Amino acid sequence: MKTKKLIAVIIAIIMLVGVFTACKNVDDPEQPSGIVDDTEEATTEEQTPEIVRVAVLKGPTGMQMSYLMHEVNSGTTTYKNNYSFVVESAPDVVNSAILSGEVDIAAIPSNAAAALFNKTNGKIKIIATNTLNVLQLLTNDATITSFADLEGKTIIASGEGTTAQYVLEKILTENGLVIGETVNIEYIAEHSESVTRAMNGTADIVVLPEPFATQLLSADIGYNIGIDLNLAIDAARLNIIMGVYVVRTEFLEKYPTAVENFLEDGLGTHTFLTSSVDVVATYIEESDIMPAAVAAKAIPNIRFRFETGEKMKELCDGMFDMLFVINPQSIGGALPTADIYYTN
Q: In whole angstroms, what is the distance from residue 248 CA to residue 106 CA?
């Protein structure tokens, strides 16, 4: 009798354990008891890159990101991403870095963004604009005050093959000049070389982007703005987007949250740039872009424009339409498709 009672107790215990186990795994019947599901945790880790690598140019885009760079370098940043920045002088170096995967996000000329998108079948996407026109025409000839005064003259400029060339030539032709006939343009390699030519007396008319234009004006050697190209652009109703931020498509697909964080951080640093000029000028010098005194004078002359989403698309579409008419090869031979934009 005792044996029968003992067997009954054992059977009852086994049944009770079975019921408990079944209840424990009711939400995941395939999940073995005692094993923790870490799939969600692993997915979260995948969406958080260890560091977001950003490349900017030693000019307006470097200036625009200077506040964020300062925060990162000082270790006091409260931003969601961890960043590393590189500041380069040549757009081609930045273009190569984004294509090779050395950086994740880069500031490049708008036409280069379209060309790279077409060339690589969509391996990069535009995520934001950064600047409108940054060019100014400077001269030490007081008689040059209109486009008609440029007839028979030679302009020293840099940026051949980039947005700077196409914008300059478009403005000149819109105002009745014929390149190579009524006006000549001598293109040289670096913006700094144009400044040097002006300062050593071997150039009377130069077209320079900011902040190099302000640098020459600050030298106080008789150069002034001969023709305000911003006013000329407005008068001709030209849609000028000089620079954009692009991201590697592979990085965007893997880390969309990190890209959204960058856009949020970029808007914040842009707002700080335009509202705290003197402070941010010291950060620009800290990043070895230019002296703070020059930066403080240059910032108000630069048409910074940080736009995302549909407004970014509208601005860039207008620029690409214009460039396609001027020189289709400037944007890779074809208008980019809508897939070039990240507008989420």
A: 9
Residue type for position 315: L
Mean pLDDT for the stretch of residues 67-95? 88
Gap between the Cα atoms of 171 and 236, Å rounded: 8
- Check residue 45 and give its pLDDT: 52
Contact 199, 216 (CB under 8 A): yes
Contact yes or no for 323/331 (Cβ under 8 A):
yes
CB 133 within 8 A of CB 229: yes
Structure tokens, 86: 């590189």
Task: Please check whether residue 97 is in contact with residue 315, taking contact to mean a CB–CB distance below 8 angstroms.
Answer: no
182-205 exposure pattern, b = at least 16 Cβ within 10 A, e = fewer: ebebeebeebeebbebbeeeebbb
Band of pLDDT at residue 103, cut at 50, 70 and 90: very high
Parallel, antiparallel or unpaired: strands 205-209 and 135-139: antiparallel
> How far is the C-alpha of 244 from the C-alpha of 262, rounded, in Å?
14
pLDDT band at 30 (very low <50, low <70, confident <90, very high): very low
- Is the distance from CB of 292 to CB of 282 less than 8 angstroms? yes
* pLDDT value for 19: 41
Q: Pairing between strand 105-109 and 243-248?
A: antiparallel
CA trace torsion 279, 61, 97, 110 (10° rounding): 170
Which of 117, 209, 195, 200 shows the shortest CA–CA distance to 159? 209
Please check whether residue 297 is in contact with residue 218, taking contact to mean a CB–CB distance below 8 angstroms. yes
Kindly report, residue by residue over 274-285, the tens digit of the pLDDT.
889 999 999 999
Q: For residue 256, how many other CB atoms are within 10 A of its CB? A: 14
